[in-house]
Write a structure and sequence with these properties.
Three copies of one chain form a homotrimer. Chain A is about 80% helix and about 0% strand. With about 350 residues, the first copy, chain A, is an all-alpha fold. Chains A, B, C: It holds the Pfam family Sbt_1.
Chain lengths: ~350, ~350, ~350
Amino acid sequence: MDFLSELTGTLLAQMQKPTLAFLIGGMLLAAMSSRLELPEPVYKLVVMLLLLKVGMSAGISVREAELVALAVPGILAVIAGVSIVLIGRMTLVRLRGVAEMDGMATAGLFGAVSASTLAAGMAMLDDAGIAYEGFIGAIYPFMDVAALLTAIIMARMAAERRAARSDVSQGGVAVIGSGGAGGGPAIDWALIRSILVDTIRSPAISALLLGLGLGLFARPDSVFESFYEPLFRGLLSILMLMMGFEAWNRLGEMRRVAHVYVFYGLLAPLIHGLIGLGMGLVAHELTGFSLGGVVLMAVMAASSSDISGPPTLRGALPEANPSAYIATSTGLGTPAAILSIPLWVALAEAFIGG
Amino acid sequence: MDFLSELTGTLLAQMQKPTLAFLIGGMLLAAMSSRLELPEPVYKLVVMLLLLKVGMSAGISVREAELVALAVPGILAVIAGVSIVLIGRMTLVRLRGVAEMDGMATAGLFGAVSASTLAAGMAMLDDAGIAYEGFIGAIYPFMDVAALLTAIIMARMAAERRAARSDVSQGGVAVIGSGGAGGGPAIDWALIRSILVDTIRSPAISALLLGLGLGLFARPDSVFESFYEPLFRGLLSILMLMMGFEAWNRLGEMRRVAHVYVFYGLLAPLIHGLIGLGMGLVAHELTGFSLGGVVLMAVMAASSSDISGPPTLRGALPEANPSAYIATSTGLGTPAAILSIPLWVALAEAFIGG
Amino acid sequence: MDFLSELTGTLLAQMQKPTLAFLIGGMLLAAMSSRLELPEPVYKLVVMLLLLKVGMSAGISVREAELVALAVPGILAVIAGVSIVLIGRMTLVRLRGVAEMDGMATAGLFGAVSASTLAAGMAMLDDAGIAYEGFIGAIYPFMDVAALLTAIIMARMAAERRAARSDVSQGGVAVIGSGGAGGGPAIDWALIRSILVDTIRSPAISALLLGLGLGLFARPDSVFESFYEPLFRGLLSILMLMMGFEAWNRLGEMRRVAHVYVFYGLLAPLIHGLIGLGMGLVAHELTGFSLGGVVLMAVMAASSSDISGPPTLRGALPEANPSAYIATSTGLGTPAAILSIPLWVALAEAFIGG
């Protein structure tokens, strides 16, 4: 009872914090059909500056971090990303009305990470005065790439198996995988390589890696402290506004896809967040990963990719219907993930006793 | 004599202040046909950030304001907005060469409020260290909506009367107003509702209301103080530059409309400003409205809408010629209003003795 | 040996400084075909803000500067700009595979000044705590306009001479220059005037002159200190990123032009920088021009115009192939000039003994 009322209090107070308030404000504007619009170039600039900031701050921290303290949450992030996709494969993809390709793409997107949701989590921890490892930004790509790779490879292998089966039934000779012969599909290294390259070239991961590189190998501290760090919250408030707006407008598209996507879009962030929270707590036990770090691991797992994921999936799985996975992720998954951030703070505090 | 030399001194000093200096700089650039251009997306971003700031700061202040202190200037603002349109109906619309629709649209635009002119007034008061009520931003929509509603309803009713008359003369049956029958045109509630909805959905009023809502119901203070407040003057300087540029380029269009528009565009801001100053002085007597508040009431009345008004009028009065009302407002009204701000400061100080 | 190791140390340390690190980061992103892009409107805004800042800061300084201290580096800057074009005329234009028009346009572009390179130089001196004259920004247009005028006039006169010769060989009557008659080509005042007007109207020079005017005749100090000055480094980092990106992508175009352009693009910045350094040292002897001022004179001379020059040349010399001069300047000249800034710092310190 005491825990519940405390949780409710925390949730209500968080809704008034700038990050969530701007997200909800954007949804309200879209709901009343406001003509306020933030043009695409501004969106691209804001995202780039936020990711450079997250990357640089991670890079600067990695310089001083111990390898073990870094590797343990990194490996756990990979496990979280892969698990989320496997769970999606076993639940969403088996449901009625869900095409296999659409389901795998959606599971991949929900396993991948949203940079803006991560940034929102960081801003809310800063607001609350909760410390977290500076290198968290460097863990993001591990979970992100692991999930996208798993989803795309499983979807491609399933498609080839189907194609092989229909070839056999037509009396043809089955050729599974690009270099595969009998026994089962071989690992398609060319596919893995092309997905990796495509992910690295995506605007979000490029900006993050650039920031990481600058933080690691250069000394960007002066411009970081005079520009990227002070503008962080303000730019994030603009981004939240746009994401709320976009989320509301995407909801309309949900009508055209199976109803199960609605349930997945709303429930998956909570279940995935719990997986991330669990991984974070394991890291806390093993290497003393901080309370803030545990929260951000949950936030990353709960989030679904909104910038880099969609184009990567569109390129790798052209048969999947973007209305299904993008609308579910942007219209439901992202606001659900952002709005659930206070929950992870409350739960992490309950478990670790911050 | 002493008053005049003091006034001249104030005016000259104000021309050097950033706000006016950037406006004049923009006009000079346009006059020398510079190819410097600030792209549309940047303009939209700057306007949105300024209006969010004005709205948030008003919302934060309204939280602590007394209802009477707020309601009195609000009602006086409505009176000012309506009066300005009625004066335009009795002067501009009756002049030779002015089509009734064009004249009413122009009067509506000059009664509505320019957010950028208001922001310029605030920055100039800040510069001069003159205090004003924080909730002023919340009064803006009262004057703005009152003026637009009055102008559009009067123009529509006049058009229906004309149509009815020509129907009668052709032997048809007169149907006045949507639900009206004989006696005179009934109030068209559907029209009023559609104008209100359209105004609220306009980018400027949306952004202002969002800011107000955030200030009232959320706690955006941290991002307000770290981002919106410090960037305010800089963003305003960019906007002033663009408005000076735009004003000069619009002047060319004036050649295509009746000469009386030139007189109206230059004189109306002064006369309307005096009306606003009067309303402000009444509020000063009644509720102790501050000297800065009186100045800003005059600034709002003197200004003509440049962001939200034009599209609203274009939608509601498609028969009116945009060259007439937009060129008069943006080319003459807005620079005249901004350049006259120091005059309202000087007059308010003379009356109240700040 | 000691000097060399010190030079290498300075160079390596400078590569890690934000300015160069972001430039190199942009090149790496382009090299790995990242899809990160900074839209055109953002680029225009960033350039405008940087040039307004450089101009305002120069204007504010000019208010207090002595005429002689200003005129001497100004005249030396003109000499440097003209010399660079004459050297280009005597070397690049005479080489095999170089069309006369293309060579003159390239020489003009390398004589003109890059605002972003100058800004990078200023930021690096600020970083190193090396003082320089505030009015340097006011010297920029002298070198820039002198070089562009010289190149365009020489190219136009050569073209007319060629046309006259072919006219003569066809039995026609030679008419040289617009008002010229026999003896040699007369000075074409109309051409000079049109180049001057075109340069002044170019976005870069417009923004710089506006800033200068604001600094000289207005009091923009409050907005300068609260907005333009603090954002300078951050905006510069964004610009450097874009310039590195652009430089790498332009390199591909170099394949289509003669190989000598590669040598010119890499060597010219070094030789021109030495000329600028020499001029700066003369000013140092004559008027006590500061060490930082000497460095910036070298930086201006080493740089090649990237914003205002190309469109001016395209308008004035339509026969020249933009692939040749823009690719050489943007792809090689600009990165070479920016990367050589630490060299001018080291050399100026060696000569003056800062």
